[in-house]
């Protein structure tokens, strides 16, 4: 083959490749965002008239693009109890039917929440939380992804559901309702994307794809396909993001991915306005997500996660084992059980690794391994130990479907002191003090998404001193902070 023929063939291949690309424009996205994030919509608060206006705008855009309504209507209302009030919201739902007879009854859900924090008054002025990046960007991208997929509808294998969720900022209400009410049967949903804050590609240095490693073809998606649209993937893992609408889908065992460009925008502040966004980067994300959805619509298998069976309880598919990090800060003192006094408190701290094992929807077992430094102050100076501690706690959690879950805990611990001193004198663990310790832990706290915060009381049952007439026990109280992956 001549060099000229090779060059012509290469040029034709490049031309065909470029013609196959999606071509959403930055201007189209800016039009949607500037409307949704305008002062007139007063921050699109959940249950507000302006939130309903935003829902109707998205529904109109679906209709103009040719996206069909699900079950004959775009707006799917739901009610959520908030305090003493029942608040009404609306999900906006459209559908693009797949063409593969074996796959068209399976669904890929593309979601983005359109609600934000509303407005407040300060010093007589109205402060609007416009929520341009969070999440007018995701809603705008959702509209244009739908338009793109319709252009190549005949190539879709699975059907695609487009959902603009309401009530995300109030506790993932719209996405939770969508699943619990089986607006689309959960066992038919094979994949979910939640576009939440995708307007800062340049500032973030690329696009995060949390959860993408759950997919069989993740290497292609974060490599060749992202490169086709000039995108750098800045984070790719197998963890389902718990702070957005992927979380309820993850409970059903559905692989759920969160495209996101970080919090470089003024997150949850009135300054999150439409003119600050990177619309060229948004267009790259929109076009990339369009092609990724088209590609995945015909892939089989999609993931090792298979979702729930028809009628299966979603709690059974919640991730049952999580690793995490623990930090404890507080105080400790010694209780002299044969005397009328106690030691004075000193600063105590601990940190290390934790695991959370779900035994059922409300009961969790939490073993940990921690380094601790604690002790007491008395007339000979400060006594401080350095210790490896292994707590084992049983947590009774509030209901599984809550975004903020309270818990009570009780358990025990075993400690081994590997060092310490009284003032500047090393502690003698061979003749004077016991190296090992065991006791009781009890406390309470809350878990917000994947963050635990609480108060932890630790009381020794064993004696620190080896002399039987000099019984000393350790007591500690900690403010605890845990992060579960």
Write the layout of secondary structure elements.
Layout: H1 3-19, H2 26-36, H3 49-65, E1 68-69, E2 75-82, E3 85-96, E4 107-113, E5 119-122, E6 125-128, H4 132-151, E7 159-165, H5 173-180, E8 189-194, H6 201-204, E9 207-210, H7 218-228, E10 233-236, H8 246-251, E11 256-260, H9 279-296, E12 321-336, E13 346-358, E14 363-378, E15 381-397, E16 404-422, E17 425-426, E18 436-448, E19 451-460, E20 472-484
Parallel strand pairs: 4-7, 4-8, 8-11, 9-10
Antiparallel strand pairs: 1-3, 2-3, 3-7, 5-6, 9-11, 12-13, 12-20, 13-14, 14-15, 15-16, 16-17, 16-18, 18-19, 19-20
Helix pairs in contact: 2-4, 2-9, 3-4, 4-9
Description:
The protein has 485 residues and is of the alpha+beta class. The chain folds into 2 domains: 21-314, Zn peptidases (Aminopeptidase); 320-484, Porin (Beta Barrel). It has 9 helices and 20 strands. The chain has helices at 3-19, 26-36, 49-65, 132-151, 173-180, 201-204, 218-228, 246-251, 279-296, and strands at 68-69, 75-82, 85-96, 107-113, 119-122, 125-128, 159-165, 189-194, 207-210, 233-236, 256-260, 321-336, 346-358, 363-378, 381-397, 404-422, 425-426, 436-448, 451-460, 472-484. Strands 1, 2, 3, 4, 7, 8, 9, 10 and 11 form a 9-stranded mixed β-sheet that branches. The protein has an 8-stranded antiparallel beta barrel with strand order 12-13-14-15-16-18-19-20. A hairpin with a 2-residue loop joins strand 2 and strand 3. The longest helix has 20 residues, at 132-151. The two termini are 55 Å apart. Residues 1-19 have low confidence and may be disordered.
